[in-house]
Amino acid sequence: MNVTSPWMPVVKNVLQHDAIYKNELKDYSLSIHCGDNALWVIVECAGECCVLLRIAYTPAGNLQVLKTTIAGDDINIHVKAPIGIFTIDFKILESTQLLFRCTTAFTPSKSLYIPFWPRDVIITNKKSSVIPQGEAHITQTGTRSGLQYISLDKPSAGSLLYFQNLTALNEYCQVTKTSLGDSVGGEWPELGFALPPSKEKPLSKNKEVIISDAFLAFNAAKNKNVFDDAKQFLNLLAEVYQHLPRPETEYHPWPEILDKGLRDLQFNHACWSHANGNDYLNAYACDYNTPPEIMVQLAVLLPMLDYKHWSKKDLPAINKIKAGLPAFYDESLGTIVRWLPAQAQKLDGSEEQLKPDIMDSWYLHHPLLNLGRLALQGDANAKKLFLDSLPFAIKAAHHFKYEWPVFYNIKTLEIIKAETKPGEGGEHDVAGLYAHVMLKAWQLTKEKKYLAEAKKAAKTLGNKKFKLFYQANNTAFAANAMLDLFKETKDELYLNTAYLCLANIFKNVHLWECNYGYAKDYSTFFGVFPLDDAPYTAAYEEQEVFAAMHQFLIDAEKINILPSVCLLLAEFIRYLVQRAYYYYPGNLPAEMLSEKVKMGELDPRLWIALEDIHDGWEQSGSVGQEVYGAGVAFGIVPRHYYCVPGEPFMIYIDYPSTGFTKKSKMVSFHIKGANKLSCRMAIINTGNQTLPSFTVAAKQDKQKIIIDGTLTKEGHMEYILNGNQQIQVSWKKK
Q1: How far apart are CA 529 and CA 523, in angstroms?
Q2: Which listed CATH number (2.60.40, 3.30.70, 2.40.10, 3.40.50) goes with 644-732?
Q3: Fewer Cβ within 10 Å of end Cβ, the chain: N or C?
């Protein structure tokens, strides 16, 4: 039985109205029709399946088209309704299939509340009363991107990506004091976007406001499995992204930010506790009640080692952290544990995981991964801790059959909490994290049992489909593990699983710039959420995804990976470098900082990142200042700044890049990403001298293109470069 809302039956009548615009595009017929109470874009797909987009609506009926202007693939329509005037800009965009954008502006004829608005997408059948079957594989959760990825299954008509550009709706939300969270959703066959209801603050009379900016991207290919779905989602998202209005970036002085954060991290008592004869990093500033955690120590140590290698500086905190690691090993269990055993009795049991013997599944494997990395760098103590803990990790994997719960008793392996939510299973991406750990063991020992374990765990990930994501950094590490397995085995299953992991990450991002409420003072574009239902973005998880995505692009250099993946990863990295600046409370206005803090204390003078950045109507920093998020600056500087030996400048690039070489008075490197998009390069003056005269050239299609720069007020030279280019920078004294 087909159950629908009262808005569904009128759709059939719309198909009978004369079209005010028609076009045949590849596998699709496209037309625009005016009904009694709505203006519709109708896309006829294969098998008589139709996708309808409602681009203007009035509950009272009596909709009248005043004027239609058609100029090639651009259509402008003015529509009059009892509630006001709609102005619609419809544009067919360049694409391999069908991609269009429709922007609707509304001018109320009187001050107006919006207590309800129908969703704007309807899936129907042109002739039959039987509603087509399909699935919305991905839909917006909270304030993530306003998108849905939909398959049209019966009749088989391919897939489509619906993308609402939420950035365009900031003014509506500011005026009505509403949020764009969960604004894209619905139940089949009524999907898409609905204006957030405004019940307290009305739209102003005679003031135009954008109420929709929708992109629809279609592909007629019939996908065979979830891996095809994942790749097509990434491809369609990249197509839309190239046409999406994106905020400008600006240069932030990350070496200066790092120095301030390093000073506070090493010498401010808010960051440290003393226990069992050693100093340990707190998880949160001034949180002295919670025992030390091994994850916290290693999450800061690894980025600090990256910075030490880049800067050639000795950092006292490194040896201090390393000295305390062996105390996390429990001889009776034969493994490292989450909480420092000598302090575990301090846990108050106020939450499920705050008990001495309770293990959160990923909390075992994340430290093991970092210990494996240290071991591969030649750290003997880390190697012993790592190898001594592997038998327990494998035992637990076998016990849980590579399906890890949320919490379990580390002594008995009794499951304490099986699922994140009823019916949704446990921490699905831990299988990928475990595979990564096993691959580090394989690289370290060359024992085949570890490679076999990695393969067994990897093969469980495809079953999770678009529910694979539990925690962002772990899903990113899973993608890297799958890429490593592909390189090791040449089995396409693992590369496809890597794409599935990436698709799960990109469904959990914030592809819009929130500019209402407090968010006017910070950037939100392309943030990644730490959990699949988290209400905020978080510094620690973002930093680790950032580092993992850098590594993915490096490891994939000799692999013909999807161009869409190159594009999306480079853009995420670029915007993380832009946004991470706003995790530091000193860079934010005092009024947007939370007055109540869950963990420790919040000190705006302390250069330690906030854990949480929220929706624009909510204050941020309510969880606390996360010391284990201190890796943000240590991760950014070594990856985006090139020191040039013997010269009074550094080279900064906000895209990922590789292959930096210096020869006399010239350096060269390769910029990742897509050639269609651009990035920023800055030559940073590190001394009191006048900068030399620079020549910057890009090699493209065997041609050498000279790129002009501009001198900034800070005395730096800035250049705009395209992605996927080989760059040469040469200089001579003025």
Answers
A1: 14
A2: 2.60.40
A3: N
**Euclidean distance between CA atoms 242 and 97, whole angstroms:** 15
Looking at residue 690, its pLDDT comes to: 85
What is the model's pTM?
0.97
Give me the pLDDT at residue 8, please.
Answer: 67
342-366 residue pLDDT tens: 999 899 888 888 899 999 999 999 9
For 505, the enclosing helix (H) or strand (E) is helix 492-506
Angstrom distance (rounded) from CA 635 to CA 597:
26
Distance CA 222, CA 217 (A): 15
DSSP annotation string for 3-61: ---TTSTTHHHHTTSPEEEEEEETTEEEEEEE-SSEEEEEEE-GGGEEEEEEEEE-TT-
Instruction: Please provide the distance, in angstroms rounded to a whole number, between the alpha carbons at the two ends of the chain.
Output: 79
State the amino acid at position 405 in one-letter form. Answer: P
Domain positions in the chain are 11-243, 644-732
Whether the per-residue pLDDT at 214 is higher than 90: the answer is yes
CA–CA gap between residue 95 and residue 1 (Å, rounded)? 37
C-beta neighbour count of 28 within 10 angstroms: 18
* SS3 assignment, position 221: coil
Rg (CA), the chain: 27
* 665-700 confidence digits (pLDDT tens): 999 999 999 999 999 999 999 988 888 999 999 987
Identical fold between 11-243 and 644-732: no
Residue 691 amino acid letter: L
State the DSSP string of 361-420. Answer: HHHHHHHHHHHHHHHHTT-HHHHHHHHHHHHHHHHHHHHHTT---SEEETTT--EEE--S
Q: Are 677 and 722 in contact (CB under 8 A)?
A: yes
Cis peptide before 155 (omega within 30 of 0): yes
More confident residue, 703 or 570: 570
In 3-state terms, what secondary structure has residue 538?
strand
Long-range contacts of 418-425 (CB under 8 A, 24+ apart): 420/470, 420/532, 424/467, 425/464, 425/467
In this structure, is the dihedral angle defined by the CA atoms of residues 30, 32, 35 and 40, taken in order, positive or negative?
positive
Q: Which amino acid is at 643?
A: C
CA-based angle 82:85:87, to the nearest 5? 145
For the purposes of burial, counting CB atoms within 10 Å of the CB of 346, is it exposed (0-12), middle (13-18) or buried (19 or more)? Answer: middle
Could you say which DSSP state residue 282 is in? Answer: -
- Give the CATH architecture of domain 11-243: Distorted Sandwich (2.70)
The strands making up 358-360's β-sheet, listed across from edge to edge, are 358-360, 407-409, 415-417
Going from the C-alpha of 705 to that of each of 66, 460, 670, 699, 722, the distances in angstroms are 49, 48, 15, 6, 11
Residue 664 has pLDDT above 80, yes or no: yes
Residue carrying the six token digits 């990403």: 673
Buried b (16+ CB within 10 A) or exposed e, 164-202: bbbbbbbbbbbbbebbbbebbbbebbbbbbbbbebeeee
C-alpha 518/C-alpha 510 separation (Å) is 16
Contacts of 541 (CB under 8 A, 6+ apart): 471, 472, 473, 528, 529, 530
3-state SS of 609-651 is: CECEECCCCCCECCCCEEHHHCHHHHHHHHHHEEECCCCCEEE
Q: Which of 330, 328, 306, 304 is closest to 318 using CA atoms? A: 304
Across the chain, mean pLDDT equals 95
Q: Residue 60 corresponds to which amino acid?
A: A
How many residues would you count in the chain? 734
